[in-house]
Design the sequence.
C-alpha cells in the first residue's frame, strides 16, 4: 500500500484545482436545491419558512466569521516592521 504525506496529497489537490472547485460548487448547488425543496413544517425562527434561508444564513455567517477572525488575527498577532530584527 502506498503511503503519502499530507503535503503530497495537498499538492495533488492543487494540481486538480479546477476539478475540486467544480465538485465543491456542485455540492453547494445540491445543498441549496435540497434546502429549497425540503419544506420546514414548523419554523422556529423568522425567515425560516423562506426557501434557501439556511443557505443564505450560513453564507453570511461564514463571511462574517472570516472577516472578524482575520481582523482579530491582524490586531493581536501582527508585529511591526523589524520586530524580529532586535
Sequence:
Amino acid at each position: 500500500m502506498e503511503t503519502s504525506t499530507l503535503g503530497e496529497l495537498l499538492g495533488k489537490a492543487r494540481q486538480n484545482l479546477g476539478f475540486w472547485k467544480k465538485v465543491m460548487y456542485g455540492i453547494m448547488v445540491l445543498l441549496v436545491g435540497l434546502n429549497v425543496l425540503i419544506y420546514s413544517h414548523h419554523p422556529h425562527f423568522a425567515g425560516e419558512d423562506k426557501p434557501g434561508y439556511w443557505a443564505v444564513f450560513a453564507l453570511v455567517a461564514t463571511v462574517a466569521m472570516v472577516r472578524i477572525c482575520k481582523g482579530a488575527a491582524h490586531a493581536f498577532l501582527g508585529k511591526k516592521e523589524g520586530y524580529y530584527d532586535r
